[in-house]
Records
---
Amino acid sequence: MQTITDIIQLRSLIAGWRAADHPIAFVPTMGNLHDGHMKLVRTAKHRALKVVVSIFVNPTQFGPHEDFDNYPRTEQQDAQKLVTADVDVLFLPSIDIMYPQRNLISIGINQLNQDYCGKSRPGHFEGMATIVCKLFNIVQPDMAFFGEKDFQQLAIIRQMVSDLNFPLLIYGVPTQREDDGLAMSSRNSYLTPQQRAVAPKLYQTLLTIKHHIVKGEPDFDQLTNQASAELNQAGFFTEYLNIANSDTLQPASPGDNTLIILAAAKLGNTRLIDNLTIHLNSA
Ligand code: AMP
């Protein structure tokens, strides 16, 4: 694996691959790699001859009171994992390389960011979309891989690629979980042992809601209100817990075939997100 920090060097290597007609897959990350990230990498390896992984903790997607400074940075261990996974290139740019000037141009999002994480993290998705757009332009991959764990992010990326005519395919990869169901996340390392013991309740709550919906419970508000109250009783602060149409992310309405339960909840200062898809019979 080559570790490259320079855009020109990366572009010239990739130009060689492109001239040889090698399909190129790209996995953008913020590092502190866990098995969720590695699942994206493994999926990418199955699909393409060449795989580029980027690690960049992007300042513009963190709010002023968020965890940018404390975000776990473990580049050496990450590089080792990527070597073992037979990745071709680790792109590891500095902030100065990615933002040589203040970023005066950025991606605006007109829809899909009004609710859920977009509401609780103003500016987050604009920062995320802008850095992904820059990375797509630098790497120019044939395909890129994103986790379904960040479902709203994936929806926004798909819309950006479609609306701005990026010539690449986006693949969503199912959420990788710990044995007790907790969605893997770099932020799980912030949890105290007591919080870590409570954390799987978030996913269990989504499973319970799904069970009720599949059984025919029609009152989604009642379901989510009760579940939020139970999470709060268990020690969470529930930021949102909603049932939406999984294509539009609009509130679910009768007749929707594919729903998604979306949740964000804090344990102490640690913000956890999770989601669960429900396919209903159209008959
Ligand atoms: P991050 O480093 O948190 O920005 O995540 C980089 C990519 O990994 C994003 O596409 C995430 O959605 C994805 N990802 C993070 N956690 C998981 C997980 N538990 N399962 C699958 N994908 C994940």
Note: The radius of gyration is 19 Å.
---
Amino acid sequence: MRTKLVVGNWKMHGSRAANQTFLDQFLAGVDALQGVEVALCVPFPYLAQMQSALSNSSVSWGAQNVCEHSEGAYTGEVGASMLADFSCKYVLVGHSERRVLFGESSALVAEKYARVLAARMIPILCVGETLAERESGQTLAVIDEQLSAVTRLLGVGAFAGAVVAYEPVWAIGTGRTASVAQVQEVHQAIRNRFSASSTSPRVLYGGSVKVQSAGELFALPDVDGGLVGGASLVAEEFLGVCRGAVEALRAG
Ligand code: PGA
């Protein structure tokens, strides 16, 4: 069985004080998460805080976005080398909130993916369909297009050691988790897509993962862990979600 990975996506939440409380409580519980890798993707201003609090722990950290350019006159943007400067391990690219609210196309997301790789960090490529796309039977085609943008630009080898997060847009922040059958179907399709090459990214599920649902979702054969939004904001809750991955490992 592949190692489980659970990534918290704090989105635009946090303050230095609240983060410190979270870190103190979370770090007190991480020893019980043997065999599971945990990472926190936080807003840019808090990367330094993560680096100093987590450097001597088993928890990794990362960012939620990156600029598609390496450096230059791009006011307000943050480049991949800057994220690497704070020892980020992971960078989310193509989260649906970026695609929908900030108009990021799959081609742009692929350029961002390339920057993350070039700076020797691990991209977490978010893919997923809207409700309308699911209802019109386009789920797998949409995901295929989102993955293909990266393979077109960089080749299938760019997925070696990378992470793909399947996040149905209709399940994000809605309290509506995809069913076990829906998740397994898409994860298997993603896995099959790479079966002909030696490349095999880890595939996470995201979308309203909670303490109650984590164990069952993470135990699915093609689910390597989760990308967790709301339930990663409170230490006890996120520890509970991570424990779901420990249980899934034991059951496997
Ligand atoms: P959620 O967010 O767990 O709050 O649904 C997941 C995500 O957007 O990564």
Note: Residues 9, 167, 172-173, 206-209, 227-231 surround 2-phosphoglycolic acid (CB under 6 Å).
